[in-house]
Amino acid sequence: MIIDTHTHIGHMLNFNMKESDLLYSIEKYNIDFSLVSNIECVEAGHKGHIIPKFLQKNEQKVLERTLGFVRKHPDKLGALIWLKLRRGEPGGKFIKTIEDNLDIIYGIKLHPFHSRVAPDDKKAEFVYKLAEKYSLPVVSHTGGCEEARSIHLYNAANAHPNINFVMVHMDLGTDNREALELLGKLPNLYGDTTWVPIQTTVEAIKRYGSEKMLFGSDNPIDGRDTYLCNKTGDRSLYQQYFNELKKLISAEDYDNLMYKNAVRLFKIK
Length: 269
What we know:
By secondary structure, this protein is α/β, with parallel strands linked by helices. The chain has helices at residues 19-28, 59-72, 92-100, 125-133, 150-159, 177-183, 198-208, 237-242, 251-266, and strands spanning 3-12, 15-17, 33-38, 77-82, 105-110, 138-141, 165-168, 189-192, 213-214. α6 links the parallel β7 (165-168) and β8. The longest helix has 16 residues, at 251-266. The radius of gyration is 17 Å and the shape is globular.
């Protein structure tokens, strides 16, 4: 079994991740369940410029699109709510929509790189109130800018011990050392495999046990065959996770990584 805890839909900036591509890929590559968030809630561009509010997508409409898509495929998909960190606490309609759809909502998604607000900033406190109220894990991008460094997510996790946090990417674009060190310091802090070399994942399992890492991919960021190859046709990192990794760790550890930890952490039935 495979549960992918980090997939997307949405058309924003230079991203165009189609619902049809996600459905195609999970069928073709035998993904049993995927947690999906909608990138259309980004607030900052790749170089850190803040997108004018009139060019940003409406948070309520983005949420409704995400839930509508997941609602059609509840046996294959679960929703992660993407919250805008710069916008602040959402209004009553947004909260009511969450409450009406908790059966298909599994967590909250943050993207400090595309908001340029750190998870330990006071602006993010409303997120943790929601997370604790509805018992939802917080899944956050790490890497690419100061605000998105894993140390800031660590600080948030340390300040909120009743909430589980996932360091997506383990500091994307780095050697993962800082994230790897932080991973073992808190019981409510986890890592995921999105663009993380299998050597880092093996090291994390060796140090802290296989319960600390989750499988994630960013699918379908490189197109409908993200699990197979990148946009230039080179073999995908995820082929190593599907194949070579099985020879490097035990069967029990492999199952924990690929689905059991996700079932436990996100309460997937």
